[in-house]
Amino acid sequence: MGLDTNLSKLSTVRLLGKGKSIGQLKKAHTVQIRLTTENEMKCINVNSASLSFQGFYYEPNNILYPLTDSIYSQSVNNSRNASTGKLEIYRSSKSTGSTLGDEEVWLLVQKVEKST
């Protein structure tokens, strides 16, 4: 969003007056977005993620409305990566459940070995 805000401040007349075309602006905008994305990707740990939990309800017209704010879990590591996890979940007895609880879930795991 910062890129769009900064570029929107530049008027077409000012750019054309400096000998730049709209096509060059689009290319420069694309290059800037790519560079910004590459820099942000260096800060992201791709071997972990957080889960979001949120309650919803249906109104009579079958429209889904949020009931609660999102709650995020602690960081969950990629278990298939030997540097972040030692166990890999390869089978689960359930994938969904009731919010009332009182359900047992079995997870079958196997050990991840670090390869050199």
UniProtKB/TrEMBL annotation:
<dbReference type="InterPro" id="IPR037059">
    <property type="entry name" value="RHD_DNA_bind_dom_sf"/>
</dbReference>
<dbReference type="GO" id="GO:0006357">
    <property type="term" value="P:regulation of transcription by RNA polymerase II"/>
</dbReference>
<dbReference type="GO" id="GO:0000977">
    <property type="term" value="F:RNA polymerase II transcription regulatory region sequence-specific DNA binding"/>
</dbReference>
<protein>
    <submittedName>
        <fullName>Uncharacterized protein</fullName>
    </submittedName>
</protein>
<dbReference type="InterPro" id="IPR013783">
    <property type="entry name" value="Ig-like_fold"/>
</dbReference>
<dbReference type="InterPro" id="IPR008967">
    <property type="entry name" value="p53-like_TF_DNA-bd_sf"/>
</dbReference>
